[in-house]
Amino acid sequence: DIQMTQSPSSLSASVGDRVTITCRASQNITNYLNWYQQKPGKAPKLLIYAASSLQSGVPSRFSGSGSGTDLTLTISSLQPEDFATYYCQQSYNVPRTFGQGTEVEVK
Amino acid sequence: EVQLVESGGGLVKPGGSLRLSCAVSGFTFSSYSMNWLRQAPGKGLEWVSSIDPSSAYIFYADSVKGRFTISRDNAKTSLYLQMNSLRAEDTAVYYCARNYENRNYENRRYYYSDIWGQGTMVTVSS
């Protein structure tokens, strides 16, 4: 199975900050990576697929980059509604493993 | 309006069984693969199982293989998860999600869960 490791596990940030979350795969997954946002008590929401493609309706302050084993999610200017937990998921093969999540908290 | 509505969760004793359902509306159910995913209390997300539109290709996480069975009824636009031999570690919120396939210009296939239900809680405890 491909292991996905996110860093950091949590971070504290302020509105307007630039935030970067990294996802490291245990093997080369090229760009077969999805990013999801989850708020407490809610289902996850797809943000990015294929490492850098923005899902319809997702604000452009979210972006994804990278290829291979190290991929990143960037929020260019953190907004109040962005405080949440973010997960990466590889879609290179089955089982479709997730990272452990990164909680973005208010500083 | 696109909707996925899970049902069937509840409290069950270890070793027991439960059948989850996911009623789908708002898109052509028979054209899409579907997923079950779960999230234990306070934990991260875990992919559980996937089924293709014709039920020809089915995949399971090792943690549920041999105990859980995914199925679908395209006429009823519904997805199911039969869960047998339940364990305490199966306690989680279970989500159904559409497994969208996106092909790019190089004919690469990208899969992602683009529409999710609200989830149904399964608690396995004596």
Topology:
The complex is a heterodimer of chains A (107) and B (126).
Chain A: E1 4-7, E2 10-13, E3 19-25, E4 33-38, E5 45-49, E6 53-54, E7 62-67, E8 70-75, E9 85-90, E10 102-106
Parallel strand pairs in A: 2-10
Antiparallel strand pairs in A: 1-3, 3-8, 4-5, 4-9, 5-6, 7-8, 9-10
Chain B: E1 3-7, E2 10-12, E3 18-25, E4 33-39, E5 45-51, E6 58-60, E7 68-73, E8 78-83, E9 92-103, E10 109-116, E11 120-124
Parallel strand pairs in B: 2-11
Antiparallel strand pairs in B: 1-3, 3-8, 4-5, 4-9, 5-6, 7-8, 9-10, 9-11
Number of helices of chain B: 0
Q: Strand percentage of chain B, roughly? A: over 45%
Q: Biggest sheet of chain A, open or closed, and with what strands and sense? A: 6 strands, mixed
- How far apart the termini of chain A lie comes to 36 Å
Order of helices and strands of chain A: EEEEEEEEEE
Poorly predicted tracts of residues of chain A: none
Q: What is the alpha-carbon Rg of chain B in Å?
A: 14 Å
Shape of chain A: globular
**Greatest interface and its participating residue counts:** A-B, 24 and 20 residues
Coarse structural class of chain B: mainly beta
Instruction: Let me know the average pLDDT of chain B.
Output: 97
The quaternary state of the protein chains shown equals heterodimer
